[in-house]
């Protein structure tokens, strides 16, 4: 029986041991940092907060936060909450918050509020992603003009050969159908919109720390592909999160997922 039970171990993209100090140094020198989380993993949420606090100590007001978990059409109410214009209970009842908001994301938003940092709601409104999931990209052309400020400019750029989308077909078990293609298109609508709002709120000299599910930034694709289409000079650092039975070494299939990979015991408690 092992006498040491680490809650996580950190590796670089080649599967070599890395330290939190290494991660913080790279992140503090980046334009954009993606923290790819497992949504229900408490270690991810703890490290997100720790990295936020440490980047704020290093970068101060040059830090901007943003997250997949907040939809772009909720930016106004997010800003009203950050500025102290509305009560917490009103924000929580009227914003479309994830079920684990109070345990996992609330303190990130409150950190931004207490530190006078911007917090950007980057994701496409879920109702529009659902439209793409049903009717493909053409469904977005039927929206009222007032909807378009909350979506990346149309037509959305898309490369179906990227593994982040092509693998979705494989997971369905059969050759791509109209329905499975739409699932990948809906995923792309999220990636494109998140990239768009990150860039809209990024200023050279700042560090933008973005929280998202690992799949949205793994293999340097998804959101990153859209960012690189717009500005290939961006210095981007990515973090991915995986669960595995043993933490002695990183699983071979997890190498190359990100600049830094957090390996967490698969027996870890879930946050929701």
CATH architecture, by name, is: 3-Layer(aba) Sandwich
Q: Give the mean pLDDT.
A: 95
Broad structural category: alpha/beta
Number-wise, the strands total 7
Classified by CATH, the class is Alpha Beta
**How big is the Rg?**
19 Å
User: Outline, from the CA principal axes?
Assistant: globular
Percentage of residues in helical conformation? 25-40%
Distance between the termini: 30 Å
Binned strand content: 15-25%
List the domain count as a whole number: 1
Number of helices: 9
**Uncertain regions: pLDDT < 50 for 5+ in a row?**
none
Query: How many strands, what sense, and barrel or not for the largest sheet?
Result: 7 strands, mixed
Query: What order do the strands of the largest sheet run in, or round the barrel if closed?
Result: 1-7-6-2-5-3-4
**What letter string, H or E per element, gives the SSE order?**
EHEHEHHHEHHHEHEE
* CATH fold assignment: Rossmann fold
Topology (elements, then pairings):
Blueprint lengths: L8 E4 L7 H9 L3 E6 L4 H18 L3 E9 L3 H8 L5 H7 L6 H15 L3 E5 L2 H10 L27 H10 L5 H23 L6 E7 L9 H8 L5 E9 L15 E6 L7
Parallel strand pairs: 2-5, 2-6, 3-4, 3-5, 6-7
Antiparallel strand pairs: 1-7
Helix pairs in contact: 2-5, 6-8, 7-8, 8-9
General description of the model:
With 272 residues, the protein is an alpha/beta fold. It has a single domain (9-124, 190-265), classed as Rossmann fold. Helices cover 40% and strands 17% of the residues. It contains 9 helices and 7 strands, in the order E-H-E-H-E-H-H-H-E-H-H-H-E-H-E-E. Strands 1-7-6-2-5-3-4 form a 7-stranded mixed β-sheet. Helix 6 packs antiparallel against helix 8 (178-200) and helix 7 (163-172) packs antiparallel against helix 8. The radius of gyration is 19 Å and the shape is globular. The chain starts with 8 loop residues before the first strand and ends in a 7-residue tail after the last strand.
């Amino acid at each position: 029986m092992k006498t040491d039970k680490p809650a996580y171990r950190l590796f670089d993209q080649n599967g070599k041991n890395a330290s939190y100090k290494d991660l913080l140094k790279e992140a503090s020198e980046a334009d954009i940092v993606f923290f790819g989380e497992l949504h229900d993993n408490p270690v991810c949420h703890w490290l997100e907060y720790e990295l936020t606090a440490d980047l704020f100590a290093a970068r101060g007001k040059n830090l901007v936060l943003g997250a997949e978990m907040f939809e772009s059409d909720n930016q106004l109410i997010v800003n009203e909450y950050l500025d102290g214009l509305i009560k917490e209970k009103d924000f929580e009842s009227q914003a479309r918050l994830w079920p684990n908001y109070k345990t996992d994301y609330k303190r990130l938003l409150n950190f931004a509020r207490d530190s006078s940092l911007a917090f950007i709601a980057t994701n496409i409104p879920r109702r529009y992603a659902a439209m793409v999931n049903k009717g493909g990209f053409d469904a977005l052309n039927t929206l009222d003009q007032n909807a378009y400020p909350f979506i990346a400019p149309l037509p959305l750029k898309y490369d179906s050969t990227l593994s982040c989308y092509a693998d979705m077909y494989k997971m369905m078990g059969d050759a791509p159908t109209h329905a499975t293609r739409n699932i990948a298109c809906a995923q792309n609508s999220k990636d494109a919109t998140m990239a768009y709002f990150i860039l809209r709120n990024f200023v050279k000299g700042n560090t933008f720390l973005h929280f998202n599910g690992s799949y949205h930034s793994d293999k340097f694709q998804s959101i990153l592909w859209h960012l690189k289409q717009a500005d290939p000079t961006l210095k981007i650092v990515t973090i991915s999160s995986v669960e595995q039975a043993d933490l002695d070494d990183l699983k071979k299939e997890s190498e190359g997922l990100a600049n830094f990979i957090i390996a967490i015991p698969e027996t870890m408690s879930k946050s929701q």
